[in-house]
Design goal:
Distance between the termini: 34 Å
Shape: globular
CATH superfamily of the largest domain: Coproporphyrinogen III oxidase, aerobic
Largest sheet: 7 strands, antiparallel
Number of helices: 16
Strand content: 15-25%
Number of strands: 12
Number of domains: 2
CATH architecture of the largest domain: 3-Layer(aba) Sandwich
Order of helices and strands: EHHEHHEHHHEEEHEEEHHEEEHHHHHH
Radius of gyration: 22 Å
């Protein structure tokens, strides 16, 4: 049975469709069981939007993932996108035109639970912890005692981000994440959630780490190279670092790989003062160019950025293209997104709110693309091209990625979690070059000359 994902952005159209959406809302269980990591959740994910606001109404159907050497039929996707002047009447008409299909479908829509523009209250620590994949890294009593501190607020955010994304992926895949909680003897620990050989995802990893201790000389050099002037006492720099990171490698080459990471650093200098900064970003690595997917992904990120500063998206999009660049190949890793690091202005509260907005886009910017391409068939040649592109992904992560370098230079780091980002399979062909005019060549052209998608 196919599933329709319905999204209406015009307020009038949204009102006309409300009766249909109410049924989907009632079908969701608004309660999260305590640390329910071992079964796919049917919960309604609070605070998420499945499509960015705009002037289009889309109806997307999906079935099961498939593979056929006969060709690239696109049976599972129906997308109706309108121009900026699309009216509410046209939106409703489009919906009614698909009424028969709608009646045969299950609703997969996630419903926004909070009013637009209203910040969610952070609420009780214990109650929020009930929705995590497992108990947080830091003892709950400690989190309650220092509830107002930024390190607590950030840990709660990354735990919630991990849980929301894992449950969304479990729902589409039908598999479950292995939840692996680990401790670091030097201080702190982490939670690695990994799903391998699923129906949709070959490898999906969503990791949280909360570590503390003293920066080594080598790790401190990594900071210095980023322009940080750090003054430790007797060569010691107390620090805490935390973040959530994820890399998703789908089986179907028409579903892109996605990566995101949001993190917070805090370092205490010899005079007792603290330096802090945030970093992170979300980026997409498709195997084939799809302009509609690229627009949706970038526009969702742009809207999150625009809530905080009109220049953020433009600046962080350019930063992303520069950072995820495989220099020895002369190409970007994918079609980008946003990336920022060492962000410590205009103020801690303002930056945290921005990071929170970005973290809450990871489900709505990616899952609609997954659902859209679930039933796309693919050939052996397309699968081989996916393997070649994964090889480039591996090259960037092992040669250039700053997070991997920092992790490998930090004592007690968990190597399995650091290398979680690598796919199960990849391919390196000697002197590989796609045929001119092919879709593979089109992809390379985009990677060699980054585009503006929004």
């Amino acid at each position: 049975m196919a599933t329709i994902v319905v999204c209406a952005f015009n307020k009038t159209a949204r009102g006309c469709l409300s009766s249909h959406l109410k049924a989907a809302t009632r079908a969701g269980d608004l309660r999260l069981s305590l640390f329910s990591a071992h079964s796919p959740s049917k919960t309604v994910l609070q605070g998420t939007r499945w499509f960015s606001r705009g002037s289009s109404v889309r109806f997307m159907s999906h079935g099961t993932a498939g593979r056929s050497a006969a060709g690239r039929s696109r049976r599972g996707a129906l997308a109706l996108s309108g121009a900026a002047a699309l009216t509410a009447a046209a939106a409703v008409a489009g919906f009614l035109a698909n009424a028969e299909h709608f009646q045969r479908a299950e609703m997969a829509t996630k419903v926004l639970q909070t009013a637009e523009g209203k910040e969610e209250e952070e609420g009780d620590i214990l109650e929020r912890c009930r929705g995590f994949m497992t108990a947080p890294v830091t003892d709950i009593r400690v989190l309650q005692e220092r509830k107002a501190e930024m390190r607590t607020r950030m840990e709660m955010l990354i735990m919630e981000t991990q849980a929301e994304f894992c449950r969304a992926l479990q729902e589409v895949d039908g598999g479950t994440f292995k939840v692996d909680q680990w401790q670091r003897k030097e201080g702190g620990g982490g939670i690695s959630c990994v799903m391998q050989d699923g129906k949709v995802f070959e490898k999906a990893g969503v990791n949280v780490s909360v570590v503390s201790g003293y920066l080594t000389e080598e790790a401190a050099k990594q900071m210095t190279s980023r322009g940080k002037v750090l003054k430790g006492k007797d060569g010691k720099l107390p620090f805490c670092a935390m973040g959530v990171s994820s890399v998703i490698h789908p089986k179907n080459p028409h579903i892109p790989t996605v990566h995101f990471n949001y993190r917070y650093f805090e370092i205490e200098e010899q005079d007792g003062s603290k330096q802090w900064w945030f970093g992170g970003g979300t980026d997409l690595t498709p195997v084939y160019v799809n302009k509609e997917d690229a627009f949706h992904f970038h526009n969702t990120l742009k809207e999150a950025c625009d809530k905080h500063h009109p220049q953020y998206y433009s600046d962080f999009k350019k930063w992303c293209d520069r950072y995820f660049y495989v220099r020895h190949r002369g190409e970007t890793r994918g079609i980008g997104g946003i990336f920022f690091d060492d962000l410590d202005s205009p103020g801690q509260e303002e930056v945290f709110r921005f990071v929170k907005s970005c973290a809450r886009t990871v489900v709505p910017c990616y899952l609609p693309i997954v659902y859209k391409h679930l039933s796309d068939s693919f050939t052996d040649e397309e699968k081989d091209w996916q393997q070649v592109r994964r090889g480039r992904y591996v090259e960037f992560n092992l040669v250039y990625d700053r997070g991997v370098k920092f992790g490998l230079a930090t004592p007690g780091s968990r190597i399995e979690s650091i290398l979680m980002s690598l796919p199960l399979t990849a391919r390196w062909e000697y002197m590989h070059e796609p045929a001119k005019g092919s879709r593979e060549a089109d992809m390379l052209e985009v990677l060699r000359k980054p585009r503006e998608w929004v």
